[in-house]
Amino acid sequence: MGRNKEKKKREIIRAALALFSQKGFYSTTIPNIAKALGMSAGNFYNYFASKEVLAEEIIRYISEYLGIKLRQINESSLSTKEKIAAIVHTYFTTAKEEPEMLDFFLRIYLSNREIYHERCAGITCISAFVTELMIFFDEGVARGDLRNQDFFSAFGLFMGYLGGMVFLNGEAILPEALENYEESITENIYRALKSDPQT
Question: Minimal CA–CA distance to 17: which of 28, 5, 4, 6?
């Protein structure tokens, strides 16, 4: 029974992600989500106590999804620069194949913090993703490839590049396909983070 409930929760999360992406968080109602799944609004509450609880579960789901992919990169034998390239590729591929995920992260989680202020203090709800980036930075510093700096400065730089490009792509502003920028974005991030910026 537990496995079936988890499966249904995932289905609700996926349906909600699509609706939030189309209509926005505040304009999407629980009856909208239930209708998309062919279930009653009352049945929805057997899985999530409120839309805010659902929003918390969604951001944890996205964080875990990306965290698993980053863990695979961290556990690989790639060089630090190759890992940056792999992270950039993973993020851009997710933007292409699962656009609702990153749309939710950029437009709802980051832009509507009032939804999360009680439930997701600090990085609580995105810890799976952030932890893997911490590991990446720590290993890069230990190898002598990246300079030792405040984590959030490095994190902000890295995610600023990726989030900015995904946002521009989502707004159809980029003149080329997102994947065509992977090499230059990788080079920019590596140069900004490496231990000797002069080389």
Answer: 28
